[in-house]
Amino acid sequence: MKLQIVSGLSGSGKTIALQVLEDLDYYCIDNLPLELLSELVEKSLKDRLYLDKVAIGIDARTVGSNFSEFHEIIQQIKNNNIDCDVLFLNAQTNVLLKRFSETRRKHPLTNEQTSLEEAIERERLVLEMIRNESSHQIDTTNSNVHQLRDQIKDLITLNNQPVMALQFLSFGFKHGLPSDMDMMFDMRCLPNPHWETALRPLTGKDQAVEDFLNQHDSCNEMFTDIQQYVEKWLPCFEDNNRNYLTIAIGCTGGQHRSVYMVERLARYFKQQRESVIARHKELT
User: Fold this and answer.
1) pTM (whole model) above 0.85
2) Which CATH superfamily is domain 2-159 in?
3) What is the C-alpha separation between 3 and 170, in angstroms, rounded?
């Protein structure tokens, strides 16, 4: 049995995540009380043909008095040899405020005494234990609906692969650090194509930018160092039964150097491994 738990802040994309999982043939249940989670698992084990892949949506409405028991419940499930992952969706407060304003939806924790911003911050605290228990975290601040669908689909599909999936993620330091990363490398010491007028409007996926960076020894040395470091430590992560590893590559704006390095590393590792993806946080 495969059990995928989806949680996160209201407005961060949980509904979209469950829709993607439903398209991937998961039996989806939203807003399930925690005390019923163990009962659902027991029923699924007795009738695998009925509930072979299950996705459960859990948010602040379902927590109640049992929230402190979340860790114990997850451990009990895993002790029954059930493949269980927890996906947590997050977003910056200002973006969540905008989303609720645009959709005119009511936040589940707002009332006459609690403003929307207060409700969001309260929800962060309430869900902190689930976030700490999560296998994967996705920050949806800069993602539109289509990008989020693709990202979740890639994540779930790779999680079902028999080998550990390897994801290279580019980002810009000026936009903040990504929350979903296991290793991070900084490209800001490399020559910056931004200062080349002809290259400024391009990205690291363009051949002209790649050619410019390839001609610098520092770029080639950085690639070799990261490649060798990742190759050395991958077996350790695999020995710990990890099914997903994210390697974040950052530069100033997330447009040129980090994108270039992610594309180059992904091409290299795709020659050796089945499950390798390249994702660019700042590119739309």
Assistant:
1) no
2) P-loop containing nucleotide triphosphate hydrolases (3.40.50.300)
3) 29
